[in-house]
Amino acid sequence: MTVMNELKEQIETRLEKIKNHSGSIALFGAGARGKLAQKQLASWGIQAECFCDNNTALQGQKVNGLYVAGIDEVCNTDKNYMILITTLPKNALAIQRQLEEKNTNIPIYHFTPSFKVDDELYPLSDFTHNQELFQQFHHHLADEISQKIFLDALFFRCAGDGLSVASHAKGDTFFDDSILPAHENHTYVDLGAYTGDTLMRFYSFCRGQYKKIIAVEASENNFSRLKSFVESACIKDVELHQIGIWSNSKEEKLSLQILENNSTGSSGFIWGNASFFPQKGNAVEAENQQLLNKGEISIKYKKVPIMTIDELIKDTPISLLKINILAADYYGLQGATKTISNHKPAIILEFGTKIDHFADTIAFFMQYKDIYNFYLREKFIFDDIKTVLYATKK
User: Which end of the chain is more exposed for a tag (fewer CB within 10 A), N or C?
Assistant: First the structure.
C-alpha cells in the first residue's frame, strides 16, 4: 500500500467518525471559523446542536441560529456529545487540553477549513484524482520532515484537522536559514510586501548585506505605509511598485476588494481573506463582521494595475523570490516561467491557499524537479501558522 493510499484511509476514517456520530455535535468556537464548520456539516446533512465558547459575552446567546453554551454545559452532561474545535490550529491545541481536563470521555477533534479563500474542505474526489501527483511530490521532497508536513497538510485540508500541522510549527519568519542560501549579493523580490514586515525580516536574514530589493504591494493604503517604512528606516537600494501580480497583463487592471471605514474613508485589506477573489460572507473575521453589521465599514472594490513577474523582473538576475499575494500565488507562478528558467531564484511560497490551485501548484513545481530541491516547513507568521514551500537550486 502506498503512502497516499494509507493517508486516504485515515482521511475517510476521520470523516466517517464525524458523519456517523450517533449523538450531538458541539462546535467549539462561535466565530467565523465556527460558521464555516457549521456550513460544512450542513452540506453533509448534519445539524450541529450548539456552539461552545469561552467568551462569556456570547454564552446564552444565539449565533447563526445555534445556542452558545459554556464549556461546563457541554462537558458535564449526559448527552452523547462530540466536540469539534473550529479555531485556527495555533489555538486548537490549548483548547483540546482544556476540554480533556473537563471530560476525557468526549470525542474531540479539530475541524476547520484550511484554505485561505475557500469555505470548504478539499474534496476527497480531488484527492483521488491527484493521488499519483501527490505521491510523486512526496517522493521528491528533500527531507523527512518535509514529507511528514506534506502528509499532515493533506490531512488538514481534507479532514479539517490541523493539530499535527501545528505541532511542526517552528520559527516566525519566511527566511529559514537552514534551507535558504545566505550571501551578501541577494537581489530579493518581495511580492506581497504589505507594510514592510517581510522586508524587515529579510534585512535581518541577510544582516543588511544585499544587492537590491524589489517590493510589490497592491493596496494603496498598505503601499503608502510600506513607502514610509522604507524611507524612515533608511533601507537602501529598494525599488517599490504599487501593482497586483497576475498570470498575464491582458486585462491591465483587476478589482481589489477592500474594507473602507465609512467615517474616515481610510481603507485596507479584508484581514484573513484574499482580496482578489469574491468575498465569502461566512469567512469574514468576527471583528470585521461586527463592524460590517454596524455599518461602520463597508466592502468596496478598487481597480489596480497588474503585471506578471516576468514583466516586473525583465532581465534582472534575481536570487530570492517570495510570493505571498492574497491566494493568487499560482497565477503569479504562471507569469514567472522565464524568470525561473533564466535565473533559477530560490522561491518562498505560502503553500495550499486555494482549492482550485492546490494540485496545480504542485504540478507547476514538479516541472522543475530536476533543478530544484523542495522543502516544506510550518511557520508562525502574521498571527497564524502557515505551510511554507521552499524551492532551492540543486
Answer: N
